[in-house]
Design goal:
81% helix
Length: 502
Protein backbone atom coordinates (compact mmCIF):
# COMPACT_ATOMS: atom_id res chain seq x y z
CA UNK A 1 0.00 0.00 0.00
CA UNK A 2 2.81 2.39 0.84
CA UNK A 3 4.47 1.52 -2.45
CA UNK A 4 1.22 2.11 -4.31
CA UNK A 5 0.52 5.46 -2.68
CA UNK A 6 4.05 6.71 -3.14
CA UNK A 7 4.69 5.70 -6.74
CA UNK A 8 1.24 6.33 -8.20
CA UNK A 9 0.76 9.63 -6.38
CA UNK A 10 3.99 10.85 -7.95
CA UNK A 11 2.83 9.73 -11.39
CA UNK A 12 -0.59 11.31 -10.88
CA UNK A 13 0.93 14.60 -9.72
CA UNK A 14 3.12 14.67 -12.82
CA UNK A 15 0.04 14.02 -14.98
CA UNK A 16 -1.78 16.98 -13.41
CA UNK A 17 1.13 19.25 -14.27
CA UNK A 18 1.62 17.85 -17.77
CA UNK A 19 -2.12 18.14 -18.55
CA UNK A 20 -1.73 21.90 -18.30
CA UNK A 21 1.45 21.99 -20.39
CA UNK A 22 0.56 19.63 -23.23
CA UNK A 23 -2.34 19.19 -25.65
CA UNK A 24 -4.61 16.12 -25.80
CA UNK A 25 -2.89 14.99 -29.00
CA UNK A 26 0.46 14.83 -27.14
CA UNK A 27 -1.03 12.47 -24.58
CA UNK A 28 -2.48 10.48 -27.45
CA UNK A 29 1.02 9.95 -28.88
CA UNK A 30 2.30 8.80 -25.47
CA UNK A 31 -0.64 6.40 -25.09
CA UNK A 32 0.16 4.88 -28.49
CA UNK A 33 3.86 4.48 -27.59
CA UNK A 34 3.02 2.90 -24.23
CA UNK A 35 0.58 0.50 -25.87
CA UNK A 36 3.36 -0.69 -28.20
CA UNK A 37 6.01 -0.99 -25.48
CA UNK A 38 3.72 -2.52 -22.86
CA UNK A 39 2.68 -5.22 -25.29
CA UNK A 40 6.32 -6.19 -25.84
CA UNK A 41 7.38 -5.62 -22.24
CA UNK A 42 4.92 -8.11 -20.77
CA UNK A 43 6.38 -10.96 -22.82
CA UNK A 44 9.98 -9.76 -22.86
CA UNK A 45 10.98 -11.96 -19.91
CA UNK A 46 9.70 -15.19 -21.50
CA UNK A 47 7.74 -15.78 -18.29
CA UNK A 48 11.00 -16.13 -16.34
CA UNK A 49 9.88 -13.68 -13.66
CA UNK A 50 6.70 -15.65 -12.98
CA UNK A 51 8.68 -18.91 -12.97
CA UNK A 52 11.09 -17.70 -10.28
CA UNK A 53 8.14 -16.71 -8.07
CA UNK A 54 6.12 -19.88 -8.74
CA UNK A 55 8.96 -22.30 -7.91
CA UNK A 56 9.52 -20.62 -4.51
CA UNK A 57 13.12 -21.81 -4.24
CA UNK A 58 15.48 -20.60 -1.54
CA UNK A 59 18.66 -18.75 -2.38
CA UNK A 60 20.31 -18.32 -5.78
CA UNK A 61 20.37 -21.55 -7.77
CA UNK A 62 21.38 -22.47 -11.29
CA UNK A 63 17.70 -22.19 -12.22
CA UNK A 64 17.76 -18.50 -11.31
CA UNK A 65 20.88 -17.90 -13.42
CA UNK A 66 19.25 -19.80 -16.27
CA UNK A 67 16.15 -17.65 -16.01
CA UNK A 68 18.27 -14.47 -16.16
CA UNK A 69 20.27 -15.70 -19.18
CA UNK A 70 17.18 -16.68 -21.16
CA UNK A 71 15.48 -13.42 -20.23
CA UNK A 72 18.42 -11.25 -21.27
CA UNK A 73 18.94 -13.00 -24.62
CA UNK A 74 15.30 -12.77 -25.59
CA UNK A 75 15.10 -9.13 -24.49
CA UNK A 76 18.01 -8.13 -26.72
CA UNK A 77 16.36 -9.76 -29.73
CA UNK A 78 12.97 -8.23 -28.95
CA UNK A 79 14.47 -4.74 -28.57
CA UNK A 80 16.06 -4.97 -32.00
CA UNK A 81 12.74 -6.08 -33.51
CA UNK A 82 10.89 -3.23 -31.77
CA UNK A 83 13.30 -0.64 -33.19
CA UNK A 84 12.89 -2.07 -36.68
CA UNK A 85 9.08 -2.06 -36.43
CA UNK A 86 8.87 1.49 -35.02
CA UNK A 87 7.96 3.21 -38.34
CA UNK A 88 5.22 0.67 -39.10
CA UNK A 89 3.71 0.94 -35.62
CA UNK A 90 3.79 4.75 -35.79
CA UNK A 91 1.92 4.59 -39.09
CA UNK A 92 -0.68 2.26 -37.57
CA UNK A 93 -1.44 4.87 -34.90
CA UNK A 94 -1.48 7.64 -37.51
CA UNK A 95 1.65 9.17 -35.92
CA UNK A 96 4.18 8.87 -38.75
CA UNK A 97 5.95 12.05 -37.62
CA UNK A 98 6.82 10.44 -34.29
CA UNK A 99 8.36 7.15 -35.42
CA UNK A 100 11.66 8.07 -33.72
CA UNK A 101 9.85 8.15 -30.37
CA UNK A 102 8.68 4.57 -30.84
CA UNK A 103 12.29 3.54 -31.52
CA UNK A 104 13.60 5.37 -28.44
CA UNK A 105 10.89 3.83 -26.27
CA UNK A 106 12.05 0.35 -27.35
CA UNK A 107 15.11 0.84 -25.14
CA UNK A 108 12.73 0.41 -22.21
CA UNK A 109 12.56 -3.32 -23.04
CA UNK A 110 16.30 -3.82 -22.63
CA UNK A 111 16.52 -1.69 -19.49
CA UNK A 112 13.66 -3.45 -17.70
CA UNK A 113 14.79 -6.86 -18.92
CA UNK A 114 18.05 -6.42 -17.02
CA UNK A 115 16.13 -5.89 -13.78
CA UNK A 116 13.28 -8.40 -14.11
CA UNK A 117 14.94 -11.31 -12.27
CA UNK A 118 16.18 -9.04 -9.46
CA UNK A 119 12.59 -7.86 -9.03
CA UNK A 120 11.34 -11.46 -9.12
CA UNK A 121 13.70 -12.38 -6.28
CA UNK A 122 12.31 -9.59 -4.11
CA UNK A 123 8.78 -10.76 -4.91
CA UNK A 124 9.60 -14.41 -4.23
CA UNK A 125 11.03 -13.46 -0.85
CA UNK A 126 8.13 -11.01 -0.27
CA UNK A 127 10.64 -8.20 0.42
CA UNK A 128 8.16 -5.44 -0.31
CA UNK A 129 9.82 -3.02 2.09
CA UNK A 130 12.98 -3.02 -0.02
CA UNK A 131 11.07 -3.20 -3.30
CA UNK A 132 9.51 0.21 -2.72
CA UNK A 133 12.90 1.92 -3.13
CA UNK A 134 13.37 1.33 -6.89
CA UNK A 135 9.70 2.09 -7.50
CA UNK A 136 9.86 5.48 -5.80
CA UNK A 137 13.20 6.52 -7.25
CA UNK A 138 12.18 5.57 -10.79
CA UNK A 139 8.92 7.51 -10.55
CA UNK A 140 10.67 10.59 -9.19
CA UNK A 141 13.18 10.41 -12.05
CA UNK A 142 10.44 9.77 -14.60
CA UNK A 143 8.12 12.56 -13.47
CA UNK A 144 10.93 15.08 -13.01
CA UNK A 145 12.35 14.37 -16.45
CA UNK A 146 8.94 14.57 -18.13
CA UNK A 147 8.03 17.90 -16.53
CA UNK A 148 11.46 19.43 -17.11
CA UNK A 149 11.53 18.47 -20.80
CA UNK A 150 7.89 19.51 -21.29
CA UNK A 151 8.66 22.97 -19.90
CA UNK A 152 11.61 23.08 -22.29
CA UNK A 153 9.14 22.57 -25.16
CA UNK A 154 9.89 19.02 -26.25
CA UNK A 155 6.20 18.01 -26.42
CA UNK A 156 5.49 14.28 -26.66
CA UNK A 157 9.24 13.56 -26.75
CA UNK A 158 9.39 14.72 -23.12
CA UNK A 159 6.95 12.00 -22.12
CA UNK A 160 8.77 9.20 -23.91
CA UNK A 161 12.27 10.20 -22.79
CA UNK A 162 11.06 10.54 -19.21
CA UNK A 163 9.54 7.07 -19.39
CA UNK A 164 12.84 5.52 -20.52
CA UNK A 165 14.87 7.41 -17.89
CA UNK A 166 12.56 6.07 -15.18
CA UNK A 167 13.14 2.50 -16.34
CA UNK A 168 16.92 2.98 -16.30
CA UNK A 169 16.79 4.25 -12.72
CA UNK A 170 14.52 1.34 -11.73
CA UNK A 171 16.99 -1.27 -12.97
CA UNK A 172 20.05 0.45 -11.52
CA UNK A 173 18.41 0.73 -8.08
CA UNK A 174 17.36 -2.94 -8.14
CA UNK A 175 20.94 -4.06 -8.77
CA UNK A 176 22.03 -2.00 -5.77
CA UNK A 177 19.41 -3.09 -3.22
CA UNK A 178 19.26 -6.77 -4.29
CA UNK A 179 22.93 -7.79 -4.59
CA UNK A 180 22.38 -10.63 -7.02
CA UNK A 181 25.21 -10.87 -9.55
CA UNK A 182 23.95 -13.07 -12.38
CA UNK A 183 25.98 -15.65 -14.25
CA UNK A 184 25.35 -16.22 -17.92
CA UNK A 185 24.75 -19.96 -17.92
CA UNK A 186 22.13 -22.49 -19.01
CA UNK A 187 21.23 -25.42 -16.74
CA UNK A 188 19.98 -27.94 -19.27
CA UNK A 189 18.22 -30.05 -16.65
CA UNK A 190 16.15 -27.04 -15.61
CA UNK A 191 15.36 -25.62 -19.04
CA UNK A 192 12.36 -27.86 -19.76
CA UNK A 193 10.48 -27.09 -16.53
CA UNK A 194 11.32 -23.40 -16.71
CA UNK A 195 10.35 -23.19 -20.37
CA UNK A 196 7.01 -24.96 -19.84
CA UNK A 197 5.74 -22.76 -17.04
CA UNK A 198 7.45 -19.68 -18.46
CA UNK A 199 6.02 -20.33 -21.91
CA UNK A 200 2.45 -20.41 -20.62
CA UNK A 201 3.15 -17.35 -18.47
CA UNK A 202 4.56 -15.51 -21.46
CA UNK A 203 1.63 -16.49 -23.68
CA UNK A 204 -0.82 -15.38 -21.04
CA UNK A 205 0.99 -12.07 -20.63
CA UNK A 206 0.90 -11.50 -24.39
CA UNK A 207 -2.82 -12.18 -24.70
CA UNK A 208 -3.58 -10.14 -21.58
CA UNK A 209 -1.52 -7.23 -22.92
CA UNK A 210 -3.47 -7.30 -26.18
CA UNK A 211 -6.71 -7.23 -24.22
CA UNK A 212 -5.56 -4.44 -21.94
CA UNK A 213 -4.33 -2.25 -24.79
CA UNK A 214 -6.89 -3.14 -27.43
CA UNK A 215 -8.92 -0.07 -26.50
CA UNK A 216 -5.93 2.17 -27.20
CA UNK A 217 -5.34 0.52 -30.57
CA UNK A 218 -9.00 0.81 -31.63
CA UNK A 219 -9.44 4.40 -30.49
CA UNK A 220 -6.09 5.59 -31.83
CA UNK A 221 -6.56 3.91 -35.21
CA UNK A 222 -10.27 4.63 -35.75
CA UNK A 223 -11.03 7.81 -33.80
CA UNK A 224 -7.66 9.60 -33.78
CA UNK A 225 -5.22 11.18 -31.32
CA UNK A 226 -7.68 13.63 -29.72
CA UNK A 227 -10.15 10.92 -28.75
CA UNK A 228 -7.26 8.82 -27.46
CA UNK A 229 -6.03 11.74 -25.36
CA UNK A 230 -9.48 12.18 -23.78
CA UNK A 231 -9.67 8.45 -23.10
CA UNK A 232 -6.21 8.48 -21.50
CA UNK A 233 -7.14 11.28 -19.10
CA UNK A 234 -10.48 9.58 -18.31
CA UNK A 235 -8.58 6.48 -17.21
CA UNK A 236 -6.31 8.26 -14.77
CA UNK A 237 -8.49 8.50 -11.65
CA UNK A 238 -10.13 5.02 -11.86
CA UNK A 239 -6.73 3.55 -12.65
CA UNK A 240 -5.16 5.36 -9.69
CA UNK A 241 -7.85 4.60 -7.12
CA UNK A 242 -8.96 1.11 -8.19
CA UNK A 243 -6.87 -0.29 -11.02
CA UNK A 244 -3.40 0.23 -9.60
CA UNK A 245 -4.47 -0.97 -6.17
CA UNK A 246 -5.73 -4.14 -7.84
CA UNK A 247 -2.42 -4.60 -9.60
CA UNK A 248 -0.49 -4.18 -6.34
CA UNK A 249 -2.78 -6.66 -4.59
CA UNK A 250 -2.05 -9.15 -7.36
CA UNK A 251 1.70 -8.69 -6.88
CA UNK A 252 1.34 -9.78 -3.26
CA UNK A 253 -1.31 -12.43 -3.88
CA UNK A 254 0.66 -14.51 -6.40
CA UNK A 255 3.69 -15.32 -4.20
CA UNK A 256 1.46 -15.64 -1.11
CA UNK A 257 -0.90 -18.09 -2.83
CA UNK A 258 2.07 -20.04 -4.20
CA UNK A 259 3.36 -20.46 -0.66
CA UNK A 260 -0.09 -21.51 0.60
CA UNK A 261 -0.29 -24.08 -2.18
CA UNK A 262 2.86 -25.67 -0.80
CA UNK A 263 1.42 -25.76 2.74
CA UNK A 264 -1.85 -27.39 1.65
CA UNK A 265 -4.74 -27.93 4.05
CA UNK A 266 -7.22 -25.80 2.12
CA UNK A 267 -5.27 -22.62 2.85
CA UNK A 268 -5.28 -21.53 -0.79
CA UNK A 269 -9.07 -21.91 -1.06
CA UNK A 270 -9.70 -19.91 2.10
CA UNK A 271 -7.39 -17.14 0.94
CA UNK A 272 -9.01 -16.97 -2.50
CA UNK A 273 -12.50 -16.61 -1.02
CA UNK A 274 -11.34 -13.86 1.31
CA UNK A 275 -9.66 -12.07 -1.58
CA UNK A 276 -12.99 -12.04 -3.43
CA UNK A 277 -14.85 -10.73 -0.39
CA UNK A 278 -12.47 -7.92 0.49
CA UNK A 279 -11.78 -6.93 -3.12
CA UNK A 280 -15.48 -6.57 -3.87
CA UNK A 281 -16.08 -4.73 -0.60
CA UNK A 282 -13.63 -2.06 -1.73
CA UNK A 283 -13.76 -2.03 -5.52
CA UNK A 284 -17.49 -2.16 -6.27
CA UNK A 285 -18.49 0.80 -4.04
CA UNK A 286 -15.39 2.72 -5.15
CA UNK A 287 -16.18 2.14 -8.82
CA UNK A 288 -19.80 3.22 -8.33
CA UNK A 289 -18.72 6.39 -6.52
CA UNK A 290 -16.17 7.36 -9.19
CA UNK A 291 -18.76 6.80 -11.91
CA UNK A 292 -21.16 9.19 -10.19
CA UNK A 293 -18.50 11.84 -9.57
CA UNK A 294 -16.82 11.53 -12.99
CA UNK A 295 -18.11 14.73 -14.72
CA UNK A 296 -17.21 16.97 -11.78
CA UNK A 297 -14.01 15.08 -10.99
CA UNK A 298 -12.57 15.59 -14.47
CA UNK A 299 -13.26 19.33 -14.57
CA UNK A 300 -11.98 19.99 -11.02
CA UNK A 301 -8.77 18.00 -11.46
CA UNK A 302 -7.84 18.53 -15.10
CA UNK A 303 -9.65 21.67 -16.23
CA UNK A 304 -12.67 22.60 -18.34
CA UNK A 305 -11.11 21.63 -21.67
CA UNK A 306 -11.15 17.97 -20.58
CA UNK A 307 -14.87 17.99 -19.70
CA UNK A 308 -15.69 15.49 -22.46
CA UNK A 309 -13.64 12.87 -20.61
CA UNK A 310 -16.23 12.79 -17.79
CA UNK A 311 -18.67 10.58 -19.70
CA UNK A 312 -15.81 8.21 -20.60
CA UNK A 313 -14.73 7.96 -16.96
CA UNK A 314 -18.24 6.86 -15.93
CA UNK A 315 -17.89 3.65 -17.90
CA UNK A 316 -14.24 3.03 -17.04
CA UNK A 317 -14.86 3.42 -13.29
CA UNK A 318 -17.35 0.54 -13.38
CA UNK A 319 -15.00 -1.56 -15.50
CA UNK A 320 -12.09 -1.10 -13.09
CA UNK A 321 -14.35 -1.96 -10.15
CA UNK A 322 -15.36 -5.27 -11.72
CA UNK A 323 -11.78 -6.05 -12.78
CA UNK A 324 -10.57 -5.59 -9.20
CA UNK A 325 -12.85 -8.40 -8.03
CA UNK A 326 -11.81 -10.76 -10.82
CA UNK A 327 -8.04 -10.23 -10.90
CA UNK A 328 -7.21 -12.19 -7.69
CA UNK A 329 -8.84 -15.24 -9.28
CA UNK A 330 -6.13 -15.23 -11.91
CA UNK A 331 -3.48 -15.37 -9.20
CA UNK A 332 -5.10 -18.55 -7.87
CA UNK A 333 -4.95 -20.14 -11.34
CA UNK A 334 -1.28 -19.15 -11.67
CA UNK A 335 -0.41 -20.46 -8.20
CA UNK A 336 -2.01 -23.80 -9.12
CA UNK A 337 -0.14 -23.97 -12.43
CA UNK A 338 -3.38 -23.79 -14.42
CA UNK A 339 -2.35 -21.04 -16.78
CA UNK A 340 -3.52 -22.98 -19.87
CA UNK A 341 -7.11 -22.35 -18.70
CA UNK A 342 -6.40 -18.64 -18.45
CA UNK A 343 -4.82 -18.60 -21.90
CA UNK A 344 -7.89 -20.31 -23.40
CA UNK A 345 -10.37 -17.92 -21.80
CA UNK A 346 -8.41 -14.82 -22.76
CA UNK A 347 -7.85 -16.10 -26.30
CA UNK A 348 -11.63 -16.29 -26.68
CA UNK A 349 -12.50 -13.03 -24.91
CA UNK A 350 -9.94 -10.73 -26.57
CA UNK A 351 -11.41 -11.09 -30.08
CA UNK A 352 -14.87 -10.49 -28.61
CA UNK A 353 -13.58 -7.35 -26.91
CA UNK A 354 -11.96 -6.00 -30.06
CA UNK A 355 -15.06 -6.78 -32.12
CA UNK A 356 -17.37 -5.05 -29.64
CA UNK A 357 -15.22 -1.91 -29.56
CA UNK A 358 -14.96 -1.78 -33.35
CA UNK A 359 -18.74 -2.02 -33.63
CA UNK A 360 -19.13 0.76 -31.06
CA UNK A 361 -16.42 3.04 -32.52
CA UNK A 362 -18.67 4.83 -35.07
CA UNK A 363 -20.76 6.07 -32.13
CA UNK A 364 -17.73 7.68 -30.51
CA UNK A 365 -15.20 7.13 -27.74
CA UNK A 366 -17.85 6.99 -24.99
CA UNK A 367 -19.53 4.05 -26.73
CA UNK A 368 -16.17 2.29 -26.99
CA UNK A 369 -15.66 2.69 -23.23
CA UNK A 370 -19.08 1.16 -22.49
CA UNK A 371 -18.38 -1.71 -24.89
CA UNK A 372 -15.18 -2.48 -23.02
CA UNK A 373 -17.07 -2.39 -19.72
CA UNK A 374 -19.78 -4.74 -20.99
CA UNK A 375 -17.25 -7.35 -22.11
CA UNK A 376 -15.47 -7.01 -18.77
CA UNK A 377 -18.67 -7.83 -16.85
CA UNK A 378 -19.34 -10.88 -19.05
CA UNK A 379 -15.76 -12.05 -18.56
CA UNK A 380 -16.15 -11.76 -14.79
CA UNK A 381 -19.08 -14.18 -14.86
CA UNK A 382 -16.97 -16.71 -16.76
CA UNK A 383 -14.12 -16.45 -14.25
CA UNK A 384 -16.47 -17.00 -11.31
CA UNK A 385 -17.80 -20.18 -12.93
CA UNK A 386 -14.29 -21.48 -13.59
CA UNK A 387 -12.87 -20.70 -10.14
CA UNK A 388 -15.80 -22.48 -8.49
CA UNK A 389 -14.96 -25.63 -10.47
CA UNK A 390 -11.23 -25.42 -9.81
CA UNK A 391 -11.80 -25.00 -6.07
CA UNK A 392 -14.54 -27.65 -6.02
CA UNK A 393 -17.10 -25.28 -4.52
CA UNK A 394 -20.68 -24.43 -5.55
CA UNK A 395 -20.89 -21.33 -7.74
CA UNK A 396 -23.38 -19.77 -5.32
CA UNK A 397 -20.89 -20.05 -2.45
CA UNK A 398 -18.15 -18.35 -4.44
CA UNK A 399 -20.42 -15.63 -5.83
CA UNK A 400 -21.86 -14.92 -2.37
CA UNK A 401 -18.47 -13.55 -1.30
CA UNK A 402 -19.07 -10.51 -3.54
CA UNK A 403 -22.53 -9.76 -2.10
CA UNK A 404 -21.31 -7.23 0.53
CA UNK A 405 -19.57 -5.26 -2.18
CA UNK A 406 -22.73 -5.20 -4.29
CA UNK A 407 -24.73 -4.01 -1.29
CA UNK A 408 -22.28 -1.19 -0.64
CA UNK A 409 -22.22 -0.19 -4.31
CA UNK A 410 -26.05 -0.04 -4.38
CA UNK A 411 -26.03 2.32 -1.38
CA UNK A 412 -23.39 4.53 -3.00
CA UNK A 413 -25.31 4.66 -6.30
CA UNK A 414 -28.63 5.52 -4.65
CA UNK A 415 -27.40 8.27 -2.32
CA UNK A 416 -24.85 9.70 -4.74
CA UNK A 417 -27.34 9.61 -7.61
CA UNK A 418 -29.82 11.74 -5.66
CA UNK A 419 -27.18 14.39 -5.00
CA UNK A 420 -26.11 14.36 -8.65
CA UNK A 421 -29.70 15.09 -9.68
CA UNK A 422 -29.93 17.94 -7.18
CA UNK A 423 -26.44 19.32 -7.96
CA UNK A 424 -25.83 18.55 -11.64
CA UNK A 425 -22.96 21.01 -12.07
CA UNK A 426 -19.32 20.06 -12.65
CA UNK A 427 -17.75 22.05 -9.80
CA UNK A 428 -16.11 21.51 -6.43
CA UNK A 429 -19.41 21.81 -4.53
CA UNK A 430 -21.04 19.06 -6.58
CA UNK A 431 -17.94 16.90 -6.18
CA UNK A 432 -17.82 17.22 -2.39
CA UNK A 433 -21.57 16.80 -1.99
CA UNK A 434 -21.68 13.70 -4.15
CA UNK A 435 -18.65 12.15 -2.43
CA UNK A 436 -20.10 12.72 1.04
CA UNK A 437 -23.56 11.41 0.16
CA UNK A 438 -22.17 8.40 -1.69
CA UNK A 439 -19.86 7.44 1.18
CA UNK A 440 -22.61 7.73 3.79
CA UNK A 441 -25.05 5.86 1.56
CA UNK A 442 -22.59 2.99 1.14
CA UNK A 443 -22.02 2.71 4.88
CA UNK A 444 -25.76 2.79 5.59
CA UNK A 445 -26.36 0.05 3.02
CA UNK A 446 -23.71 -2.12 4.69
CA UNK A 447 -25.25 -1.43 8.09
CA UNK A 448 -28.60 -2.70 6.84
CA UNK A 449 -27.69 -5.39 4.31
CA UNK A 450 -24.21 -6.61 5.31
CA UNK A 451 -23.94 -6.37 9.09
CA UNK A 452 -20.92 -8.64 9.34
CA UNK A 453 -18.80 -6.50 7.03
CA UNK A 454 -20.07 -3.29 8.61
CA UNK A 455 -19.01 -4.52 12.05
CA UNK A 456 -15.61 -5.53 10.70
CA UNK A 457 -15.05 -2.06 9.25
CA UNK A 458 -16.21 -0.43 12.46
CA UNK A 459 -13.85 -2.65 14.46
CA UNK A 460 -10.93 -1.73 12.20
CA UNK A 461 -11.77 1.95 12.58
CA UNK A 462 -11.86 1.68 16.36
CA UNK A 463 -8.64 -0.32 16.63
CA UNK A 464 -6.52 1.60 14.17
CA UNK A 465 -7.90 5.15 14.29
CA UNK A 466 -9.98 5.87 17.37
CA UNK A 467 -7.58 4.03 19.67
CA UNK A 468 -4.52 5.93 18.41
CA UNK A 469 -2.49 8.39 20.46
CA UNK A 470 -4.28 11.25 18.68
CA UNK A 471 -7.53 10.42 20.49
CA UNK A 472 -7.97 11.24 24.20
CA UNK A 473 -7.87 8.14 26.40
CA UNK A 474 -11.41 8.56 27.70
CA UNK A 475 -12.74 8.40 24.11
CA UNK A 476 -10.73 5.39 23.02
CA UNK A 477 -12.36 2.09 22.22
CA UNK A 478 -11.15 -0.96 24.14
CA UNK A 479 -11.53 -4.37 22.48
CA UNK A 480 -13.69 -6.71 24.57
CA UNK A 481 -11.61 -9.77 23.63
CA UNK A 482 -8.01 -10.75 24.01
CA UNK A 483 -5.45 -11.59 21.31
CA UNK A 484 -6.12 -15.34 21.53
CA UNK A 485 -9.85 -14.86 21.00
CA UNK A 486 -9.24 -12.49 18.10
CA UNK A 487 -6.94 -15.03 16.44
CA UNK A 488 -9.57 -17.75 16.88
CA UNK A 489 -12.21 -15.47 15.39
CA UNK A 490 -10.03 -14.76 12.37
CA UNK A 491 -9.44 -18.47 11.83
CA UNK A 492 -13.18 -19.18 11.94
CA UNK A 493 -13.85 -16.28 9.56
CA UNK A 494 -11.17 -17.50 7.14
CA UNK A 495 -12.76 -20.92 7.09
CA UNK A 496 -16.08 -19.39 6.08
CA UNK A 497 -17.83 -19.92 9.43
CA UNK A 498 -19.74 -17.53 11.59
CA UNK A 499 -17.95 -14.30 12.46
CA UNK A 500 -16.34 -14.11 15.84
CA UNK A 501 -16.50 -11.17 18.26
CA UNK A 502 -15.16 -7.81 17.08
Amino acid sequence: MLSFVGTKALTFAATLVLARLLAPSDFGVLAAVLAFITLLELVSDLGMKATVIYESERGITSRVHTAFTLNLGFTIVLTAIAVALAPLVAAFFDAEGHSALFAVAALDLLLRGMGNIHDALLLREMEFKRRIIPQLTSNIARGGTMIGLAVAGLGPAALVIGFVVGSAVWTLTLWIIRPYRPKLLIDRTAVRGIATYGGWASGLALIAAIGQRADVAVIGNVLGARALGLYTIAQRVPELVVGNLTWNLSIVAFPALSQRRERGGGRLTDTTLNLIRYSSLFALPAGALLALLAPALVVVLFGERWAEAGAIMEALAIMFGVACVVLPLGDTFKALGKQPIMVAVNAASVPALIGAMLLAAPAGVVAVAWARTGIGVAQAVVWFVLISRVLGLPLAEVAARSRPGLVGAAGVALAGGVVRLVLPGADLGSLLGGATAGGLGGLLALRVGARREFNELRGLLHRHVLSSALVPARWRWSPPVGPVEIEQAVEVSSAGGEPGPT
